């Protein structure tokens, strides 16, 4: 019987450490804090403008998440593998 291994708390792990863990059998990585912190930093930069709108803030969040996820898909070796 095969049991999927899950890594909880991937924030702070280097790309090479992720690749090594995946090579050793990790099949799922729970990763949130760094992604959310990136979104918060984007929001901070946007709201520094006196003319910032809600749409700019929410767009900034989406951009941050997209950038993080695109990079992590490459690190995890999953880019282009979704059906």
Reconstruct the topology from this structure.
Layout: E1 5-8, H1 15-23, E2 26-30, H2 33-47, H3 54-76
Parallel strand pairs: 1-2
Helix pairs in contact: 2-3
N-to-C order of helices and strands: EHEHH
Report the uncertain regions: none
Number of helices: 3
> Strand share of the residues?
5-15%
When the domains are counted, the total is 1
Strand order in the sheet with the most strands: 1-2
Describe the global form: elongated
The helix/strand class is mainly alpha
Mean pLDDT: 90
Helix content: 55-70%
Q: Strand count, sense and closure of the main sheet?
A: 2 strands, parallel
Radius of gyration: 16 Å
Oligomer: single chain
Number of strands: 2
Tell me the span between the first and last alpha carbons.
25 Å
Polypeptide structure, described:
With 83 residues, the protein is mainly alpha-helical. The protein has one domain. Helix content is 57%, strand content 11%. Strand 1, helix 1 and strand 2 form a beta-alpha-beta unit. The longest helix is centred in the last third of the chain and has 23 residues.
In short:
By secondary structure, the protein is mostly helical. It has helices spanning 15-23, 33-47, 54-76, and strands at residues 5-8, 26-30.
